[in-house]
Automatic annotation (TrEMBL):
Its main location: cytoplasm. GO terms for cellular component: cytosol. Residues 33-341 form the Aminoacyl-transfer RNA synthetases class-II family profile domain. HAMAP family: Pro_tRNA_synth_type2. The keyword Cytoplasm applies. Catalyzes the attachment of proline to tRNA(Pro) in a two-step reaction: proline is first activated by ATP to form Pro-AMP and then transferred to the acceptor end of tRNA(Pro). Belongs to the class-II aminoacyl-tRNA synthetase family. ProS type 2 subfamily. GO terms for molecular function: ATP binding; proline-tRNA ligase activity. This is Proline--tRNA ligase. GO terms for biological process: prolyl-tRNA aminoacylation. It is an enzyme of class 6 (ligase).
Length: 447
């Protein structure tokens, strides 16, 4: 992409309404535009990152054996009356009447609809286990939408639902989700800590929230600092192996880590004092085993081996896809702007031409651009007639992790400059070597 032909409405001024850094930078970098309170348009740069996050979520869900599908955002109230949640949900549910005066709603979540799909088509234990998921917009009429995409009213969520014959099988599905979430967040450059959460009125303690530590987080968290040393990494895992998934769950949940809702001061005090941490966190996902709550009230049963009809054991598992943009920026920025982790960056590399219109500099930039594109990488080439300082400021703000700077002086010596956004360190090297280095960083060629 050439910046002169792109649509990236960068703001010079800091918008007054933005209270936290991720919201400020998303507005300033021209990633989003507010359409109404808690409702945003995704401008091209923001949309690109959103799609990258979705892609990671899809890949990791399917790696775990979960099946993608898509349900509508608009739902009929009937199913919710059946489960009993239509009245219980309260003012957070956006209720709408259609022209026939039928009660409709914009889905805040999809347990009812997926249970209805399941009961219509599945009748035997032989079809289990099954986990279906979607990435779809949700609407919750939050009392106080704030912090940009962090607490929106319309937001994008991955919601997955497992259907299993027994509680044991459903807990394996729960563990599979935990593992797939650990992998997903790490690929996005995040450390998200599973913390024991509050299951609310449903009961049971099989629920964990995943929290990214950040001062601006809305949840207060208490944890043993030893947990931050855990890394999932790229270890191989067999998602069908009950033991392997259970071992990961134990490894990642044996240390104390809870939100204020489930915090237990007596247990916390047993951690060595130097490892006790009280901090804030952003909830980027939640996994939840709720047993037969919906299958019983909505009659989602299967025939077991004896032919008896039994309600299926279910769980639901969410990832805050649009919230993740805010969480990643909160976790990775400096006073100049965003610093995208390589896994989600909207463009792999920036190219800054210090002397636009200089035949040699223009040609060198074009050659770099073509070489990167030929490797399947997407560079953003700042080809505008702008001062170098302004170009650098824009690149720093939008946070591409790597920048190649091209100027007549370097070219005389046969070099360009490759700069890391994260460390600020630069090195001079021939253009071909810069391309190779960037390609190796992204794993498209061996370094
Ligand atoms: N049905 C379950 C999981 S499928 C569910 O709805 N869980 S949830 O309420 O915890 O939402 C899942 C994730 O969506 C949360 O962890 C959070 O990351 C994200 N989320 C929830 N509310 C909002 C909101 N108002 N704005 C942005 N993201 C949100």
């Amino acid at each position: 992409m050439r910046l002169s032909r792109y649509f990236m409405p960068v703001l010079r001024e800091t918008p007054a309404e933005a209270q936290i850094v991720s919201h400020r930078y998303m507005l300033r970098a021209g990633m989003i535009k507010q359409a109404a309170a808690g409702i945003y348009s995704w401008l091209p740069l923001g949309y690109k990152v959103l799609r990258n996050i979705e892609k990671i979520v899809h890949e990791e869900q399917q790696r775990a054996g979960h099946i993608p599908m898509l349900m509508p955002t608009m739902q009929s109230a009937d199913l919710w009356k059946e489960s009993g949640r239509y009245d219980a949900y309260g003012p957070e549910m956006l209720r709408i009447k259609d022209r026939q005066d039928r009660d409709m709603l914009y889905g805040p979540t999809n347990e009812e609809m997926i249970t209805d799909i399941f009961r219509s088509h599945v009748g035997s234990y032989k079809d289990l286990p099954m986990t279906l998921y979607q990435i779809q917009w949700k609407f919750r009429d939050e009392m106080r939408p704030r912090f940009g995409v962090m607490r929106g009213r319309e937001f994008l969520m991955k919601d997955g639902y497992n259907f299993d014959l027994t509680k044991e099988d459903a807990l394996h599905a729960y563990n599979r989700h935990l593992v797939s979430y650990l992998r997903s967040y790490e690929r996005m450059g995040l450390q998200a800590i599973p913390m024991r959460a509050d299951s609310g009125p449903i009961g049971g303690d099989d629920t964990h929230e995943f929290l990214v530590l950040a001062d601006t987080g809305e949840s207060e968290v208490f944890y043993d600092s030893a947990i931050t040393e855990l890394k999932f990494g790229d270890r191989a895992i067999d998602y069908d192996s009950v033991d392997q998934c259970q071992a990961v769950l134990e490894e990642f949940t044996q240390r104390y880590a809870r939100t204020d809702e489930t915090h237990d001061a007596a247990l916390f005090d047993q951690i060595p004092e130097e490892r006790q941490r009280v901090a804030r966190g952003i909830e980027v996902g939640q996994i939840f085993y709720f047993g037969t709550k919906y299958s019983e009230s909505m009659g989602a049963t299967v025939a077991d081996e004896t032919g008896a009809k039994v309600p299926v054991h279910m769980g639901s598992h969410g990832i805050g896809v649009s919230r993740l943009l805010g969480a990643i920026i909160e976790a990775s920025h400096d006073d100049k702007g965003i610093i995208w982790p390589e896994g989600v960056t909207p463009f792999h590399c920036g190219i800054v031409n210090l002397k636009q219109g200089d035949a040699e500099a223009d040609a060198a930039c074009q050659a770099l651009y073509d070489a990167l594109a030929a490797l399947g990488l997407e560079p953003l080439y700042d080809d505008r007639e702008e001062r170098a300082g302004a170009k650098f400021a824009t690149m720093d703000l939008i946070g591409l992790p790597w920048r190649i700077t091209v100027g007549p002086r370097g070219l005389k010596n046969g070099v360009v400059e490759l700069t890391s956004r994260r460390t600020g360190e630069s090195e001079e090297l021939p253009p071909e070597a810069a391309v190779e280095k960037v390609a190796a960083i992204y794993g498209v060629i061996k370094g």
